[in-house]
Design brief:
Elements (H helix, E strand, L loop, with lengths): L1 H15 L8 H14 L8 H10 L1 H29 L3
Helix pairs in contact: 1-3
């Protein structure tokens, strides 16, 4: 259930910031796990409620948005640099 909440959060962050990017299921799972770990929600009870409460708090909402955007930027930089390296012989 918490993954469903996270997917709603991710979609809201992407649309709010007008970011158009396609993420594979693996990448979605990866950013989901990293958000839970970073905010100390991984392995806890009621992860779904905790994530939803964190999203409702304005301060935490900003931090979650910043984390997701930073993660996406890092992913884009990495994929671009890997793409250029792949062409070098």
């Amino acid at each position: 259930m918490s993954k469903t909440i996270f997917m709603l959060i991710l979609n809201e962050v992407l649309s709010k910031n007008r970011i158009k990017i396609k993420l594979s299921e693996f990448e979605k799972d990866q950013v989901y796990r990293e958000v839970l770990n970073y905010f100390g929600l991984a392995g806890g009870l009621n992860t779904c409620e905790s994530l939803e409460r964190a999203w409702q708090d304005p301060y935490n909402r900003g931090r979650i948005e910043d984390f997701i955007i930073t993660w996406l930027k890092r992913k884009m930089r990495k994929s671009i640099s890997e793409g250029h390296r792949a062409g070098i012989i």
